[in-house]
């Protein structure tokens, strides 16, 4: 089924799902996904530094999540 959205919107949705949702919830079947799973993911997302989690700070001497 082709979505009724602009191609750039679809590309952005795919990118957000790939970067933020799939790494944590992607292994769980949708029919087995619970409210608790989603809430735990949202709580983790709020507490974490996304640039560090995705390795974007690899060249930085100190990361946001591990200050020295």
Describe the structure.
- The chain has helices spanning 7-25, 35-47, 50-53.
- The protein is mainly α.
Strand content: under 5%
Instruction: List segments where confidence is low: pLDDT < 50 over at least 5 consecutive residues.
Output: none
Distance between the termini: 50 Å
Q: Give the topology string: H per helix, E per strand.
A: HHH
Helicity, in percent? 40-55%
Helical element count?
A: 3
Question: Can you count the beta strands?
Answer: 0
Outline:
flat
Whole-number mean pLDDT: 81
Rg (CA only): 15 Å
Let me know the largest β-sheet. Answer: none
Coarse structural class: mainly alpha
Would you spell out the secondary-structure blueprint of this structure?
Layout: H1 7-25, H2 35-47, H3 50-53
